[in-house]
Amino acid sequence: MSKILIINASKRFGSSQGNLNNHLTRIAQETLTELGHDVKITRIDDGYDIEQEVGKYVWADAVIYQMPAWWMEAPWIMKKYVDDVFTGGHGKIFESDGRTRSDSQRKYGSGGLMQGKEYLFSITWNAPLEAFTDPDQFFEGKGIDTVLFPFHKANQFIGMTPLPTFMCNDVVKDPHVADDVARYRKHLENAFGKN
Questions:
Q1: Pick from 64, 57, 117, 65: which is nearest to 92 by CA?
Q2: How many CA atoms does the CB half-sphere of 90 hold within 13 Å?
Q3: 62-68 vs 118-124, strand pairing mode
Q4: What's the rounded Cα separation, in Å, for the pair 68 and 117?
């Protein structure tokens, strides 16, 4: 049995009620439990204790970030959570930026203490998939992982490695929740398999 932490960044904001991200969190919990994993969930908007969250990262074998995209990136509550928890985790989830004066081979970003742990982004976006894959559309064909590059690097800084990103597209103008849920279950099965 592996241990998986789900960080849910759903929030009522603007026209969003946060329902889809809450639903996907429940789907992940159900699917992962059925696969034999131990699951903990933090819903950021319900509040959190920084030391307890650091402990959850130390406990977890993998972290799933369930979040909407706001203004081309993770929502501010996710950024605040990461700032709080990663900074509070100094000495437990990272020791330094990795560089030392005595060993020039150690490079920036090599001081994480979370080696062997993985993370997965599950993101909901109103943009259609073509906006990410078509070079003539908004994201110039660069794909979701390039758009999320800084968030990837934050997790890699503490030593974790990425699992394939999952994305729901067109969630406001042309939602397909049942199809998205089926795809997400399959994505989780592929990422975390049966124990």
A1: 57
A2: 7
A3: parallel
A4: 23
Nearest to 91 by CA among 124, 58, 138: 58
CA distances from 146 to 73, 143, 152 (A): 11, 6, 9
70-120 tens-digit pLDDT: 889 999 999 999 999 999 999 999 998 888 777 777 788 888 999 999 999
The pair of three-digit structure tokens given for residue 175, joined into one six-digit string: 């939602």
* Amino acid identity, position 99: R
φ, ψ of residue 81 in degrees (nearest 5): -60, -50
CA–CA separation, 159 and 153 (whole Å)? 10
Residue 119 β-bridge partners: 63, 162
- The structure's pTM equals 0.94
**Residue 44 backbone dihedrals phi, psi, to 5 degrees:** -50, -45
113-151 burial, b at 16+ Cβ within 10 Å, e below that, comes to bbeebbbbbbbbbbbbeebbeeeeeebeeeebeebbeeb
